[in-house]
Design goal:
heterotetramer; A: alpha/beta; Rossmann fold; Hypothetical Protein Tm841, Chain: A,domain 3; 2 domains; 6-stranded mixed sheet; globular; B: mainly alpha; Serine Threonine Protein Phosphatase 5, Tetratricopeptide repeat; about 70% helix; about 0% strand; binds adenosine-5'-diphosphate; binds magnesium ion
Chain lengths: ~325, ~210, ~325, ~210
């Protein structure tokens, strides 16, 4: 295992030390692994909390700051944080207007946030569960779809709404609308390697790739021979378009790197993806290209498409100032 | 013949040992159909929980198992943390402020734990989760104490858990991360079912 | 070779198509592979041009925009651009106040920029050559040190000065002062793979790493057994401190990823590096952690330290709005 | 006996062929002590330059070699682009608006090219660059035409270039990317010296 770490057990703790040092505008509660804003919002404004397993950086801590999250709670690598951390974080950021829990749909995350909400007295909590990954068949009998790239969009758009002083039900409703009209699909050229295990989670021969992977090193829906960027773009975009009606509304599109794929390739992929979308009549109004929701050292990418209405576009464009998303301010 | 406090301590200690022994095996199972951390998560949790029990030295079953449950919830994370945590928290409530349990009381405590898992995770039989090992084990224990002694019952529960674990191999996962794989999950044992089998194996050893 | 590309020959062309689509605020001259600003500066302001081989993204194209570069010229992967591209770009961005050529010290880059400057009539050109990589022994008889991470600092600080309307000699002088007081050192856990060759440039066994690598997949000064983040930080920071007197002045520090190293590890490394610097009496006033000057899919990192005076700090903090560096605007 | 326009065309064609054949070998040499693109760079440049010559069909040596030099400069990039480009640009100027060259004129043109490389890259003998193959080759050519014929001179130049190329293996690089390696550059042939040897091998074949 080739990693820039000291010991597998200390990765998260020490990474948070570095994060705290690099971003003096943020605060870190090291005991509870909570990253929160140095400057809190005015009393009476809704606060946003997200969190989940680590290893997806910059998600979520890199999106704490003006216009996005109020705090992020970091679990161990690929492991949901525990209720007591979530409770502590929720209490810390509550400004008296309630807290929106932004949850990626994984059994562990959902259960831990649920336990936290059950135990939280005195704080109004609403919840949005993101389940945008169409690689997974949806069904009420299963765990349902995973939450992946769309999380960035939910955090940005709901964060901007909260910053404007809107009420909790409104912010949560907006977040749910984003969830309803966004879809993602990912692929991997290589597996990631958990620091604690030291070996790739799955073996991927030199001539193959995984289509429909998540962000936890879990294998995808199918393994296919390596293909060109153009064909890969098709394998990601077509199912997204088949799953949701995007026609008409302008789209916000993210071409996301899984962690180990260089930017030169991500831009190339974005060109392919955008071409396919425009050909299908989806006009790309805004875009993000880069590493936003990663899976440690996995090579690969994912595509997220959101059918955005004017309100969402406006909130997308609103000023944001976080370590990993910043504009207009 | 009641199950003593020392036997319950043994149960926890043995579980601890078996989980640590099986750390990489559990992780391997989880790598095949999940995210490869189940062994890591549980060993971290067991270490934290024995540490807590060692330092706080609870003297009653409700205190001890509440401590275990709380520690698991806050140190395991992931899906198995809340599930095993809830199992022990409910077990504690059912066990009550006692230092030993009759076989019938133990059966009820196990059932309470099982009900907690159901409430938390909404698993059904055949979903390919820890529930597929836990449900038959708890049922076997309840049935066995009607006729046999508690050691025998724990042994039968352990066998039922192991059989439930093995049977998960043929299932298509419908809950947890393995469900993302659909048909590709077939042929692999569920890691949570494997750790649940260890829990009941430890109980059988503690009561033997 | 596992890459998100169509054909090795088209990587750069197609990546620029994606970049153009992702950043409508920029313009791309695809024939000459020039990325330039959509909104030009006022007449009479100094313009900044940089360029070099591709494969180091976001360098340089990701730093085109307000407060940094006016244009970037992209050579083939790891290959300097040619004089005619540089000439075209220089003419395009000249606002009548001259153009500063920001050059990383590689024989190819230096010679191609030199030929361009020789052939450019009618445009005042000044030149700054960045040679910050202390892994290379300096000497007047050799090619000298490589230009690496400090390039970001030069482009940011000189770019801010140009934006303020300062004259070419002043902007160039400032850029040279940054060069004189900044140092870098890098390491690699893995080699990068050129699309055109398809194989790792060098073999690095599982238990070894390269200390003192550059950003072109070239092997480093020495190969050593894998070590902890703490030891690696020492191997990078100590030679930097030995090479230059940093004591007293506040430092701007970059912990840069080589392309395939996840952010969680980069933050961890930053924590280690910052600890060592502070212990040596160097106070870290500003910092950057992330992938800024990469080497395709190489895993590893580099450290850049600049002893900054008040003027540099002020220009560092000045607003900047480029695809990959943005604040204050 | 003069060297004809056709022979110069042959020189370029053979160089083109040899470089493309040696593409991966040159790249491998550059991987060991550089950035692994020398073969890629030169084949791209040769393809571009033959394309230009084919389409523009220059009829005089100065036009042809200016075209080659300009095309190499603008298509090779890296260090070798300006160096080989300058070589041919200076060669063109020295050759002049002619269709053939006497051996003495050819020697002068080669010297002019060599001087261009020196001016551009400031190499010295022993720096472990293309200059270590080019300088002895040009010198050998000039010396040989004093007594022998031009084919013989080109052959000797080719041998001198090959010897110069081989001798670079023992040197510590002081110029180009290989210089970053210091002592670690010893034991490897310089890729630019290897391509220069191909240039002179092609000349010998064209004039044979
Ligand atoms: N809804 C559920 N009900 C019961 N058990 C579940 C459920 N979801 C997951 N599990 C169990 O949890 C195990 C995985 O635990 P673990 O790997 O620690 O967590 P995570 O999946 O979050 O990484 C699975 O093997 C399965 O037995
Ligand atoms: N200063 C110099 N003078 C002469 N030749 C040089 C000089 N620097 C580099 N070279 C030659 O250029 C060759 C490398 O060319 P190439 O790989 O195409 O360019 P780059 O080094 O930019 O990747 C070296 O092998 C060497 O022979
Ligand atoms: Mg997990
Ligand atoms: Mg798991
Ligand atoms: Mg090169
Ligand atoms: Mg080279």
């Amino acid at each position: 295992m080739k990693k820039l770490i000291n010991s597998p057990d200390d990765v998260l703790t020490e990474s948070l030390l570095g994060l705290a040092a690099a971003h003096p505008e943020l605060r870190v509660d090291h005991a509870n692994r909570i990253v929160y804003r140095g400057e809190t919002k005015p009393h009476g404004t809704v606060a946003l909390l997200s969190g989940g397993g680590s290893g997806h950086e910059p998600l979520h801590a890199g999106f704490v700051g003006f216009g996005m999250l109020d705090a992020a709670v970091c679990g161990e690598v690929f492991t949901s944080p525990a209720p007591d951390q979530l409770i502590e974080a929720t209490r810390r950021i509550d400004n008296g207007a309630g807290v929106l829990h932004v949850i990626k749909n994984y059994t562990g995350d959902v259960m831990n946030f649920e336990m936290a909400a059950e135990l939280l007295g005195g704080t109004e909590v609403d919840t949005v569960v993101i389940a945008d990954d169409i690689a997974v068949e949806d069904s009420t009998f299963t765990a349902g779809r995973r939450g992946t790239g769309l999380t960035v969009f939910v955090e940005k758009i709901a964060g901007a709404a909260a910053e404007q002083g809107r009420e909790l039900t409104e912010v949560a409703g907006l977040a749910r609308r984003v969830c309803a009209s966004g879809r993602s699909m990912g692929m991997a050229l290589t597996s990631s390697t958990l620091p604690a295990s030291g070996r790739p989670t799955f073996d991927l021969p030199d001539a193959e790739m995984e289509i429909g992977v998540g962000i936890h090193g879990e294998p995808g829906r199918r393994r296919v021979p390596l293909a060109s960027a153009r064909e890969i773009a098709r394998m990601l975009v077509e199912p997204i378009l088949a799953d949701h009606e995007f026609g008409g509304s302008p789209a916000i599109v993210m071409l996301n790197g899984m962690g180990a794929t260089p930017l030169i390739e991500l831009y190339l992929m974005f060109g392919e993806v955008r071409g396919l979308l425009e050909k299908a009549g989806v006009s790309v109004a805004r875009s993000l290209v880069g590493n936003y929701v990663t899976s440690l050292d996995m090579a690969g990418c994912s595509v997220t498409v959101l059918a955005a209405d004017d309100e969402m576009l406006g909130l997308w464009d609103a000023p944001v100032s976080t370590p990993s998303l910043r504009w207009g301010i | 013949m009641a199950v003593t406090f020392v036997q319950f301590m043994d149960w926890l200690r043995l579980t601890d040992e078996h989980v640590i022994e099986a750390r990489s095996e559990l992780t391997e199972l989880d790598s095949a159909i999940g995210d490869g951390d189940h062994g890591i998560n549980l060993s971290r949790g067991c270490a934290a929980s024995s540490g807590k029990v060692d330092s706080e030295k609870p003297e009653y079953l409700d205190d001890m198992f509440t401590l275990v449950g709380m520690t698991l919830v806050s140190s395991v994370g992931g899906a198995s943390g809340p599930l095993y945590g809830t199992f022990f928290l409910r077990f504690a409530t059912s066990a009550g402020h006692r230092q030993e349990l009759t076989p019938v009381q133990l059966a009820s405590a196990l059932e309470a734990g099982l009900a907690g898992v159901v409430q938390r995770g909404k698993p059904e039989l055949g979903d390919k989760t820890m529930y597929d090992a836990m449900q038959p084990a708890v049922l076997a224990f309840r049935n066995a104490i009607k006729t046999g002694d508690v050691a025998e019952a724990a042994l039968l529960a352990s066998r039922a858990a192991a059989a439930g674990r093995d049977a998960t191999a043929d299932l298509v996962a419908r809950k947890g991360r393995a469900s993302y794989l659909g048909e590709r999950s077939v042929g692999h044992i569920d890691p949570g079912a494997a750790s649940t089998a260890l829990l009941f194996q430890s109980l059988a050893e503690a009561l033997a």
